[in-house]
C-alpha cells in the first residue's frame, strides 16, 4: 500500500509559552476508511524521532515505522479502523518547526521558533482531528513520546477520547531521562557548525547531532540485546588496532546510526522536541496524578516492557495505580522482552494481541452505547 503524506494548514495556534504560532502546518497520513458514524478513528502518536509515515510504503519505498502494527488484520486493523498519524509540532518532516520559513522574515525560524510542549503538539493534533470532521476518537495510542501524547489527549480532551493506549512511556520525565536529553542537546550546541542554530544556509552540525543520536540509541536498547547483537566482537579484524579507530562491532553500529540520523533529522528539532519531553508533566507541576485524571472517563490499556530502562516499568505502574485508585477502567501488562525501549517497535506479537483485543472490546462497547 503506497501512502501519501498530506499537509493541513491552520491560521494560528496558541502555545503554552504564551506565543502564538501563525500560520501553522501539520503533516499527516491516514490508513483505512472513516465509517459513516465517524466512530472508528484512532490517532497514533509517534516517538521522538518519528514522523507521520507510520504504515504502508512511501513513494520512495520506505515502510512505515509501525508497519508491523498498522494494516489489514494487524493490531490496528485498517479493514476496521481509520488510523491517523501526524508529525509533531516542532518536527522536521512536514509539520511547522524551527526549519520552517518564518513568514515575517522569509528565512527559517531557527532558534526564534517558540518553545513548545507536548500539550502544544496535542493542541495542533486536535485542530487536525476537528478538520477531518471527527467528533470523538475511538482511541489515541503511541509508544514513548507517543504515549505522552496519548496521556495528554485523555487529560486535555477527555470528552473526545474513548480509550487510550500509552506504551513504554511516563507521565513526567525523571532526572535521568532529562539528563540523557541534555547530553544530546549539549553535543549539538557544542558543535561549531551549530552557529547558534543559524545553519540552514551553511553546514549543519552533523558531528554533534550524530553524537546525540549515538547516546540516545544506547538508551533504546538493553544490556542483554546489545550483548546478543554485538558482544565484544571486533569489526572486520582479528585483534585490536591499538588506535582510536573502530575496533568493536558496537562502535561501528553506533557510528552508522549516528551518520544515518544526520541525513533525515534537523538538529534544532532535536533541541526543541527533547525540551518538550522534559517539560512534560501530566499534573502541570502539582505532582498529583489523581487530580489530573479526576475528570477522565477514558478506558486505558497501559503497556510496559521488562527490559526498558529508559522508560522503566515503574513509571507505567505509577499511572496504573492512580487510575485504579479512582476506579478507572484500566488494563495493564508488563511484557517480557529483551529489546529494551525499542521493544514497542520490534517485539510486537504479544503487544498485537493485547491491542487487538482492547480495541475490539472498546469498539463493541461504543457501538452498544
Q: Brief overview, please?
A:
The protein has 369 residues and is α/β, with parallel strands linked by helices.
Structure commentary:
The chain is α/β, with parallel strands linked by helices and 369 residues long. It has 2 domains: 6-173 and 280-368, Alpha/Beta hydrolase fold, catalytic domain (Rossmann fold, 3-Layer(aba) Sandwich), CATH 3.40.50.1820; 177-275, Orthogonal Bundle (Rna Polymerase Sigma Factor, Chain: A). It has 11 helices and 14 strands. The chain has an 8-stranded mixed sheet, with helices on both faces. Strands 2-3 form a two-stranded antiparallel ribbon. A two-stranded parallel sheet has the order 6-7. Helix 2 links the parallel strand 11 and strand 12. It is globular.
What is the CATH-assigned architecture of the largest domain?
A: 3-Layer(aba) Sandwich
Q: What class would the helix/strand composition place it in? A: alpha/beta
> Which strand-content bin applies to the residues?
15-25%
Helix content: 25-40%
What is the overall number of helices?
11
The run of helices and strands is: EEEEEEEEEEHEHEHHHHHHEHEHH
Count the domains. 2
Q: List segments where confidence is low: pLDDT < 50 over at least 5 consecutive residues.
A: none
Q: Biggest sheet: strands side by side, in what order?
A: 1-4-8-5-11-12-13-14
Biggest sheet descriptor: 8 strands, mixed
Distance between the termini: 34 Å
